[in-house]
Known about the structure:
By secondary structure, this protein is α/β, with parallel strands linked by helices. The chain contains 21 helices and ten strands. The protein has three domains: 5-178, no CATH class; 339-420, 2-Layer Sandwich (Threonyl-tRNA Synthetase, Chain A, domain 2), CATH 3.30.980.40; 429-623, P-loop containing nucleotide triphosphate hydrolases (Rossmann fold), CATH 3.40.50. The chain is 46% helix and 9% strand. The strands form three sheets. The chain has a four-stranded antiparallel beta sheet. Helix 21 (590-611) links the parallel strand 9 and strand 10 (617-623). Helix 2 packs across helix 3 (51-68). It is extended. The model is unreliable at 1-9, 190-196 and 211-316 (pLDDT under 50).
Amino acid sequence: MFNTQARRSERIFGLRPETLNDIVALTIFLVGLLLFLSLATQTSQGNLIGRLGELVYQVLSFVFGVYVAYVPVLLILGWGVSFWSGRRWRHVPARVAGLFLTMVWVCAILALPYAEADFAKENGFRVGGAIGNFLVHRECLNLKGTFGPVGCWILFLGGLIISLLVAADVQLRPMFVRLWSGLRQLHPSRFFAGRAERPSMFERVSASLGLEATGEEEPVERVELAPQGSVPTKTAANTIPFASGGGTVPDVSRVKEGVLRPRPAFSEAAETPNRESEEDREQSTFACGDQKANQEEAAPDDLVALAQQQARAPEVHAYVPPPVDLFRKPDLRVARQSHDEIRRRSEVLERTLAEFDVRATVVNVEQGPTVTCFELELEPGTKISKLTGLEDNIAMAMRAQSVRIIAPIPGKGTVGLEIPNSHRSPVFLREILETEAFMSKTSPLAFALGKTITGEPYVCDLAQMPHLLIAGTTGSGKSVCLNAIICSILYRMEPDRVKFIMIDPKRVELNVYRDIPHLLAPVVCEPKQAANALAWAVKEMDSRYKKLEALGVRNIDGYNAIVCSDQPHPKAMGQQLEYMPHIVIVVDELSDLMLLARNEVEESIVRLAQMSRAVGMHLIVATQRPSVKVITG
Length: 633
């Protein structure tokens, strides 16, 4: 019965919303079609739509000219089609204003050649309409006479570009970045580079985790013609081990572009090792033999040049961080307590302590966005233990939810009492991201965490922690903290420098990041796949330690310094070095994961927490209960 009433309440004028949507879309489309036919069928003998069509033709062609008059008509037709398909336009007033200005500039450009002509002799109104001729004609505004022909072209084209950006709701910089990337791909040297394209880290890790290629097209081998004198590379550089049985990543450079399609999560096929075919083993043997022969024949100077050529950071593609306008602007009206209110609360605090024979004086007050800290100076001979046992009494006297006592404040001879404000000021992530304290950080894993009691931005470095545990009850802000950390890193670092592995058993918290280029593999939602992902992270950690051992460095910073250096390293000769990005493993709701797959997850998390810091791998774990049953080891 309740469902029937709910369905009836959704109806409008007795019609379902879908039916009403189709009626409105059809009405808009019919109006646009009538206007289009009114313009297209006008002849000296009449109009196909009749006198109404003649009137529409005369008004639109007089105002905009016969060419630009079709633009609003086509806009109405497109609006009807988008309304029928269910899509809604954003920022409609601004985009309509931008479209109108676009029509004005186009009319002015079309009427510019007729600026010096006479109304009766030239057909200026037919081309540019009343708007265009009003702007440029010598008997009206006469912009051509004011700015000159070149100045008018610059003015009109600049206004046209700006209005098009407003109408299309796009940014100019990403368009130039994509255009420049396309031009770089069309450079002639790209066709004679002589080396096969290497798969991205996302494709390699996804393939090693069992994300098979899908598609109806058959894989097509790509034939590469290596120029004379090219140096062969190691085939082992294209493999990444994973799971208990190891395995290799297929060389996706031999697969037709566009065939690879990763699945939404890790596949159970990742548990079984991949078997190399006889042909792949033969090709790998021949490649290694050829490389060994070439290295034996090469002179020592050639080996130094080879190491210097190979020890480079990966090619950094143009990465455009998301605009900060996605976040809300902070409210400038901060709810701060007045001096009289602070003085009154200080007197209440001193009087309450005096009732329990604790003589203290408020010497300083630090007011933050959510908490106010009162600094108390105790009289000589007063024990601090007498004050720490009065938390509940102070909270009742101050009418606060809770009170936190800092006894004593480090570096000072005073005691601090942190009392929540009656009116809290929210802290917006945008105002932290725009501060100098955040932008000046050089660490790739710096993130914004909030504000201090004094209102200063608080920026942390995950590399110095080196792992992070976020705990709290439902609704305490764990997901907000996770999103702040992730967004802080995304706004500063390119995908080549920081990578993410996200494990989300709840399926709703981290799936919003499924399309970011920083992901090593799609977001993990299944417990068994989460165990596979953590096992891969352990193997990657061991592999990185072997690379550090081979070069004789102690951490990831020393390794990447050698990779990015122009000077050849003695231990790097003959090796193909790759830039080693930081890897952040985000685990949401660890308690649920430990409940379903404790044996598979526990050992991997303990090993990563103990050893992964030096190789640039860090854990961020969120849970409701940080008990020993959940956080073991």
